[in-house]
Amino acid sequence: MNPSPWRVFAALCRRDVHVVARELPFFLLRTTLQPIMFTIVFGYLLPKMGFVQRGYTGALLPGVLGVSLAFASVQAVALPMVADFGWTKEIEDRLLAPVPISVIAVEKVLAGTVQGMIAALFVLPVARLIMGPINGLDFAHFGLVVGMTLLGAFTFSAFGLLLGTGIKGEQIGLMFGLIVAPMIFFGCAYYPWKALAAVPVVQVLVLVNPLVYVSEGMRGVLTPALPHMNLAVVAAALVVISTTFMALGLRTFDRRAVT
Amino acid sequence: MPPAIETRALRKVYPAPPVRRRGAGGPPMAPLSGAPSPAPAGSKEILALDGLDLEVPPGEFFGLLGPNGAGKTTTIGVLTTRVRPTSGSAAVSGIDVQANPVGVKQHIGVVPQRPNPDRQLTVIQNLLFHAAYFGISRSDAQPRAQALLDQLGLGDRGESKVDQLSGGQQQRLMIARALIHEPDILFLDEPTVGLDPQARLSLWEILRSLHGEGRTIIMTTHYMEEADRLCDRLAIVDHGKLLALDSPAGLRARAPGGTMIEVTLDGEAAPVLPALLGLSALTRTSAKGAEVVAYAERAGEAIPLLLRAAEQAGRLPLDIRLTPPSLETLFVSLTGRKLD
Which of A6, A126, A163, A232 is the most buried (most CB within 10 A)? Predict the structure, then answer.
């Protein structure tokens, strides 16, 4: 008798909860230090020195949360995948579980999504503390905040699956240098997309970057009074992008798992 | 009852490994797992299995013997659903591995070539979570895990971190993990590579007792002695093909007559060959590079004749090695190469 895939899925989740809970402080340190330092410089020091306007923090906070959850989600999935398929082969005990192997990949993406959301949840009060009161910050649409965080984290978690299974272990450094870093800088995290109208070419080019939609989406739900991309456009873009990443990621995962 | 495993005309062709640009010269890196033998010159693909037919009845201790790159690991990979065959079919307990990999996984336990425990978990957690992946409740898994650890000499290591175990202990943990869901068929891929002699002997004992409990065991090895001592039947494979299949005793009986004499000369061996073929004391003779390999019923008589013939052809012997008729000599006569 085969166990139900749900039961196996639950066991895979328990394993990740067990491991992630123990590693959580290190995980948060690794994934949120960069956005937090950015917050200190751009959300505290520069406004104090008078280089940026006080109102800037309203545009910055949602972007910083977007970066945090994107960066954490990608790392949570991609790094273990690269190691597991590259050298430790530890995932093999799960690949032997009597379920379709896509169940294992989906569970990893789900775990990455939750980790991304935890990172955002951790950064929010820290950033608020550093920046002081933020004009326009509004938690009235809490359901939308959760939904947008979920969608953004899922998108980047699926991207982590694709990266982690699609590239070789020795290229992991290259991946962060060439893909993740530009994504963060051109992801409208530190400036609103509407403001890019000042440089129209860039405003169009950055639309290929999924982080743009996450940052703008976070603006739409956290600081709805400030300029942001239409939420319906954001949601549609993220659904299309995450579905594409997931489909491609499942394929590369399958190719690594069954050679 | 269906055979424990059955393969028909099983073929596996791996795509060509990517060309490595870094570092001039040097041989290309072997693929990570399986290390299949290179394909014929000119073709870039790697032929790992070339029409393999195997049938193993339930309850047998079956060995796949072959040198590195013979296709042993690929065979195990196909049977454990981790390698997709290019053509042909494979079934485990009558279940087709491609049509129903999930069904196959329910019946098998796999001990990998290199221990790959979940290093984030303790020893016993490795077993408990693996049981959970098979839908076994914690209350059932706990006593079973402890019993397995006791049986495998890890009874007091349950709470240890995996990294605190020795290589042999990790290998035993892999066996415990492979058994926690009580599979009918246990696959072991080169289970004793890298173990010290004592750990190897203790592993042999464990495998014998598991077989005694009625389990089917499929093991790959390139250690002749291991295959000889443990297996009911042995398949000798090379270049992805089945070369011989019989009990160890049956295979030994098929070894070419007499002692294998290997002589290393101080130059090309080919000029010596015509003179050797005329010697009635030698049953079979071949030459490759500076090596002459010959078989003789009475090696003591044949060696002086062989050496004289070599000297007359202008060659001096540098080294002589003798191997009595054994699986080893059969293997060399079948494959033209040694195991290691």
Answer: A163
Q: Around Cβ A181, how many Cβ atoms within 10 Å?
A: 12
CB contact at 8 A, A224 and A141:
yes
Using the Cβ of A97 and the Cβ atoms of chain B, whether some distance falls under 8 Å is answered with yes
Q: Which letter does DSSP use for residue B32 in this model? A: S
Whether residue B130 and residue A89 make contact (CB cut-off 8 A), yes or no, is: no
Contact residues for B137 (Cβ-Cβ < 8 A; gap 6+): none
Top pLDDT among A252 and B167 is at: A252
Task: Count Cβ atoms below 10 Å from residue B19 Cβ, excluding itself.
Answer: 7
State whether residue A76 sits within 8 Å of chain B by CB.
no
Q: Are A224 and A76 in contact (CB under 8 A)?
A: no
Residue A173 pLDDT grade (very low, low, confident, very high; cuts 50, 70, 90): confident
Whether this model's pTM surpasses 0.90: no
Contact flag A90-B116 (C-beta cutoff 8 Å): yes
The residues, any chain, with a CB within 8 Å of residue B283's CB and separated by 6 or more, are B256, B257, B258, B294, B295, B296, B297
| DSSP notation for A133-163 | S-TT---TTHHHHHHHHHHHHHHHHHHHHHH
What average pLDDT does the segment A59-66 reach?
Answer: 88
Q: What is the mean pLDDT of residues B233-255?
A: 86
What is the tens place of the pLDDT at every residue in A90-105?
Answer: 888 899 999 999 999 9
Please name the residues between 4 and 63 in chain A that touch chain B, using a CB distance below 8 Å: 4, 7-8, 11-12, 14-15, 18-19, 22-23
> Which pLDDT does position B42 carry in this prediction?
52
